Amino acid sequence: SACGFGKYQPVAGQFECELCPTNTSTKKAYARHLKDCKEICHPGSYGFIRGRHKNSKLGVKPCILCPIGSFQPQYGALSCLKCKEKMTTALRGAVGGNECVSEESPCLLSPCHNGGTCSDKNGLVTCKCLPGYLGSYCETITNECSSHPCFHGGSCNQSGTSHNCVCNPGYTGNNCEIDIDECTSNPCQNGAECIDLEDNHHCLCPSFFQGSLCEINVDDCEGNPCGDGGRCIDGLGNYTCLCKNDYSGKHCEFDPCSDINPCANNGTCHLSTNTSESSYWCECLPGYTGKRCNIKINNCISPCLNNGTCLFNLFSNKFTCNC
């Protein structure tokens, strides 16, 4: 025999049937599978029965809400109960008879949820919802993030009936719609020009500076352009060589004997091997002395006796006395 409503048996030849899980039943009396067990209809609704399932004992899904003017307090109903004459309900899906009100004032039951405003026309209720709610009776919170309100890749978080956007770096505003001007904080140094980019900035460095913020002075002394042990002093776009051992020139390229002869009176300049004392020495012509041959030798400083007159010969570097 058939299992009956609310039971099933997948194996032929059995003497007992399996019960459907709690709050479920079958549309037919000869169900064979667990999947034939459907959830029974909740109060305020009824099961739609037709065709070969017209003998069903319980209403199961798909269920239909009780229409306006009716109600149903039971689970698994196959129909709804009508309100008394000249009575109606404000909403579909009424659960109890206490929801039946006069047809003249269906809004008395405050059918609109979440602060919605109720109005009726010929007994038909219409709800005007507050922002953030929707549905026939304002029963559903709007998914604010479904419309993707956050610009420039911002992340949307639902917060009650509203939303907030978590913006990516470089953007701000309620919906991340404002591109932050990264140049307002003057990040570029040393007079560089700041160019605002999308979520970033770029510094146009003046000559002699480099780095993302133009914070680095280009090292003009790189490679040490100063020769012969000269010390390089870095400047802005230039450098200065502090030469050693009497060397000269922009790069200390001139030794003390090759530029301007430091030896006076036609003395001959020689580079010194002992730079701790001097970088050069002068070979003086006869009649001159001193480091730079700038001292004239006076061999006639009173060498003659008895008031004799001294006569000095520059060429022979000798003197004679005129007595």
TrEMBL record:
**Statement: the UniProt record of this protein carries the keyword Nucleotide-binding:** no
Q: Which domain of life is it from?
A: Eukaryota
Which UniProt keyword terms apply here?
Answer: Disulfide bond, EGF-like domain, Glycoprotein, Repeat, Secreted, Signal
A GO CC annotation recorded here is:
extracellular region
Q: Which Cys-Cys disulfides exist here? A: C129-C138, C167-C176, C205-C214, C284-C293, C300-C310, C304-C321
> What sequence ranges are listed for the domain EGF-like?
103-139, 141-177, 179-215, 217-250, 253-294, 296-323
Query: Quick check: keyword Thylakoid in the entry?
Result: no
Q: Could you tell me where this protein is found in the cell?
A: Secreted
PROSITE patterns under this entry?
Answer: EGF_1, EGF_2, EGF_3, EGF_CA
Record CDD domains: EGF_CA
Single Gene Ontology BP term?
regulation of growth
InterPro entries the record matches: EGF, EGF-like_Ca-bd_dom, EGF_Ca-bd_CS, Tyr-kin_ephrin_A/B_rcpt-like
Q: Which SUPFAM superfamilies match?
A: EGF/Laminin (SSF57196)
Question: Which GO molecular function, any one, fits this protein according to its record?
Answer: calcium ion binding
Q: What is its main location?
A: secreted
**Pfam families under this entry?**
EGF, Ephrin_rec_like
Q: Which PANTHER family does the UniProt record give? A: CYTOCHROME C OXIDASE POLYPEPTIDE VIC-2, UNINFLATABLE, ISOFORM C
Quote the protein name from its UniProt record: EGF-like domain-containing protein
